[in-house]
Model the fold of this input.
Amino acid sequence: MAIAKMAKIIIASHRTQASELLEELQRGGICHILNAEEAMLSRDFPELTALAERPKDLETLLNRLEKSLAFLKNHATAQKGLAGILAPRTVIDEQLYNKVVSDRKILKTIDKSEHLEASIEKTKAEIENIQSTLQMLRPWASFQTPVEEICRLQKATCWAGLISNQHLEQISEKLNEAGAAIQQIGTGISRSACLIVALNENAEAIQKLLRSAEFETVSFEPMRGTVSRLINEHNEKLQQAQKQLQTQTENAAKLSKNLLNLGILCDHYKNLLEREQTKDTVPATEHTVILEGWVKKNDYATLEKLVSGFEASSLHKIEPAKDEDIPVEIENSGAIKPFEVITRLYGMPQHFEVDPTVFLAPFFALFFGLCLTDAGYGLVIIALMIFFIKKMQGDKKLMWMLGICSAATVVAGALTGGWFGDAVQQFIPALGPVRARLMWFDPLEKPMMFFNLSLGLGYFQIMTGLMIAFIHNLKQKQYLTAICDQLTWLIMINSIVLFLASKFGTVSAEAGQFFGFLAITPAVTILLFSHREGGWGGRIGMGTYNLFSTIFYLGDVLSYLRLMALGMVTAGLAMAINIIAKIAGDIPYGIGVVLMVLVLIGGHGFNIAINALGAFVHTLRLQYVEFFPKFIAGGGKSFEPLSKEYKHIYFKKEI
Done:
């Protein structure tokens, strides 16, 4: 339950074996490999440069595969329902995987897919063009003259086009005054189809007038025949194109049966591309590829055995440079491991810091439970998490974590009497004695008890954070930092709290006076030594600010009142839902029972969803803002070993 210890390694491999070695390393998934820019070897030996050769053929093939997958998925019969969401990848075995990867004929599916996609796009464009032409022709349907005759006048000019309905009357008068004739052929929603004829000597003036009226010219080129005949012809073309599109779509649906094979190939070539890109970006000579990187010390023996299988490759352990950024991996087990989700979401700690997971886990579960404070809600979430864990593919740590937090919710709810709000009192009074025996206190009757509990837990977590930092610095032999940055605050803050407690009679006056004097020593230490760089003027100035920041600890503790606030809101809303349901149940003729059930299911379902989200977010905030900064800075570089990843397929046992 700590940050994994890392070993710096160098693997030298002859170029002929580099690809096979990288495949084994990728299969093992235990070695973090540095590229030429990150490797210290490149700094010490600048002549070692990466090949920087892009595997263009692989990139092109992978790009074609991904496009074909995207195209065929749009035409496949989608897997519907919750099962498709939780388990989107197809489960296969190693035998099928190897069969598909070795069958080169499957790649022909890409050609068929691309050809079909191009055909469908062409047909869609044709349909769109025909529909656009029909839309243009419909206003002219009553025009009996063949359209090619419009432009055959010798002493006159004819314009066919659209004029806005609101301007039609006005422009008609102006055209008549200018010596032109206008004929309205058809009327649309906002514009009318019109023919305007004028003598050639008046054409220029008429064109200016039409432009001012926003006249939209319509061209019938290269069409021939009457508009009604053209509309019929285009309707036939549209039907043929739509029929062709339907056939092409059906062919695409049939071709989509190859989705699994394409998905297998896509994942295979993506892993292959990652290996080739790694090989081309690491330091190398003419005949040797040098892999510099990191491995967890516990995995070094495994890596040594793996590399020993290659005669032209060797493995060496080296010392990291002083300024080197060591990658970080956290290792936890049991009930603590699921809470790594919270740590990873925050960001990895530095390699010299402490893994916060083991410390945040009990606090997170407890705070989540207090934010909901309803045993019934906790049981519902546990049932949902069990279902998701059984059905969902991939990493299930989040589900396990929420299940643990929900177990804490059941305990918190039982101790505060929350079972779907006050459902026991409202609907099952016979269970009242059982509820009462399990209860510690009722938050609605004793809100100050919940208030004090929230503040107490917040104070305890903040002190825990300071204590973690203090012990860690002692282990790192940073004694001055431990004393001046943690021990002083621990003594001073607790002394002030005990001094104030004496004023309320909680602690004896003599003890309060002792702790009051005791707080002076750490306060002076903070003033003089909390900032230990620069001149004494700057040190005292920063020390004064740090001493004043004691007030910030009060703000941090008060932030934990959100535990009480969320817990009370959850209980209050649950009670309101029960009251509404009971009122609905009084409606006669059996309608009331149905309404009551609907209100209970819908209302409590909504309350669980909204308040579980609130509990998660606010508990998360307490860890990140109030707890973590007390003992870690974060910003560590994650340990990312070269490993195989699968987006489209799922193995019960990794190959």
